Amino acid sequence: MGRFVRLAVSPEPKRRSRAAARKGSSDSRSSKGLKASYWLRRMDQTPPRATDSSDTAFDRRITALRRFNRLYTQRIGVLQNGLLSSPFSLTEARVLYEIALGEQQTAARLGQRLGLDRGYLSRILRNFEGRGLIRRTPSANDRRLSLLALTPQGQSVFADLDARSQAETGTLLRTLPEEAQSRLVAAAGTIERVLDDARAGYLLRPHRPGDMGWIISRHGALYAREYGWDIEFEALVAEVAAKFLRSFDRRRECCWIAEKDGGNVGSVMLVEDTQTTAKLRLLLVEPDARGLGIGARLVRECLRFAREARYEKVTLWTNSVLVAARRLYEGAGFRMIDAQPHHSFGHDLVGEIWELAL
C-alpha cells in the first residue's frame, strides 16, 4: 500500500451566517469527494515521497517489488471477485489445496502454515463443512486432534479448480517463447527459495558438482555410526547417486541440498520410476541440524516437484528401524503398503514400501 499524508484542517469559526453555512456544507461535500478521490487513487501509481532523503537503494527495492506484485497479481487473475471464475476466494482455494495435498492436516497446522487468523480459518472450514467439501476424523495418535480431508464432493471441486489453474497458467506461458518460459520459471524458483530460506534459517538449492560425493560419504558415515550398517549400504548409495547423475532429466527429476551456515546439512532426491510414478530417495539430515524442520521441508519439496511434473504417485523404500524418517513420511501423507524381512548391511531388517497418491 502507498504511504498517505493526512492533511491538517484549521477549525472553523464557531459562528457563521446561514449563507456561509450553506456554502460550508457545499464545500464539505466537495471536500469529502476530493478526499475519497485522494484515498482511492490508482494503486499502481507510485506514492509521492516526503523527502529526498528516503530515496535510498532499499526504497528502490521496495518500489520494484511492489511493482512486480501489482503486475503478477493482475496477470494471474487473482484480483477478480472469484478465483478462476469460481465461487471461491484466493484464500479459500488455497485452503482447499492444502487439504487436498493428502498430508495429515489439522486446523492448527493449516493456520500456522498459511499464517491465517484462527477465527478466519475456522469460519472457512465451517463453510466448507456446511457445503459438504471436507470432513473431520479423530487422529489415531491423538484423539483430541481432528484430521481434515476432502469429501468426494470436495475432491471433485478441487479437481475442477486445479484444472482451471493449470489451463490458466498454460495460457500465460504459451504467450512466451520457450526460452522466456524457462527464464520465468527459473526466476520464480529463485523467489520461492529466497523467501523460504530467509524464514527457515537455512537454504535449499539444486545439486551441483561435488554434492554426490558428500551424499555418499555422509550416508555411509552416519548410518554406520547410528545403526551399525556396514559398507554395503554406502555402496548402494553410490550406485543410486551414479545412476542419478548418468540419467538425470531435470524436467522429471530433482535433487535438493540443504545448506546452513555455508555447509551441507541435508539432502533428498526424487527420481523417475515410471511415467506416472516417482521415487523419493536418499533423505538425510545431519544430526546437528535436526529439529529445524529440514527433513519435512525436503519431503515437501519433492512432493511439490512431483505434482508439477504431473506424476500420479510417489513411492519410497525404507526400513522399520528408521523411526524418525518413517514419522516424516507418515506426516506427509504416505502410507505403508508392504513390509518384508531381509538381511542387508550386516543386519536383519524389515524393509518397507510406502506410497502417496498425488
In short:
By secondary structure, the chain is an alpha+beta fold.
N-end to C-end Cα span: 38 Å
Helix/strand/pairing category: alpha+beta
* Strand adjacency order, main sheet: 3-4-5-6-7-9-8
What name is given to the CATH topology of one domain?
A: Aminopeptidase
Number of strands: 9
Largest sheet: 7 strands, mixed
The CATH architecture of one domain can be named as 3-Layer(aba) Sandwich
Uncertain residue ranges: 1-19, 21-46, 48-53
Shape type? globular
Looking at this structure, what is the CATH superfamily of one domain? Gcn5-related N-acetyltransferase (GNAT)
Determine the strand fraction and express it as a percent band. Answer: 15-25%
Write down the overall mean pLDDT: 84
What would you note in describing this structure?
The chain is an alpha+beta fold and 358 residues long. Among the domains are: 93 residues, Arc Repressor Mutant, subunit A (Orthogonal Bundle), CATH 1.10.10.10; 157 residues, Aminopeptidase (3-Layer(aba) Sandwich). It has 11 helices and 9 strands. It has a 7-stranded mixed β-sheet with strand order 3-4-5-6-7-9-8, sandwiched between helices. Strands 1-2 form a two-stranded antiparallel ribbon. A hairpin with a 7-residue loop joins strand 1 and strand 2. Helix 3 packs across helix 6 and helix 8 runs antiparallel to helix 9.
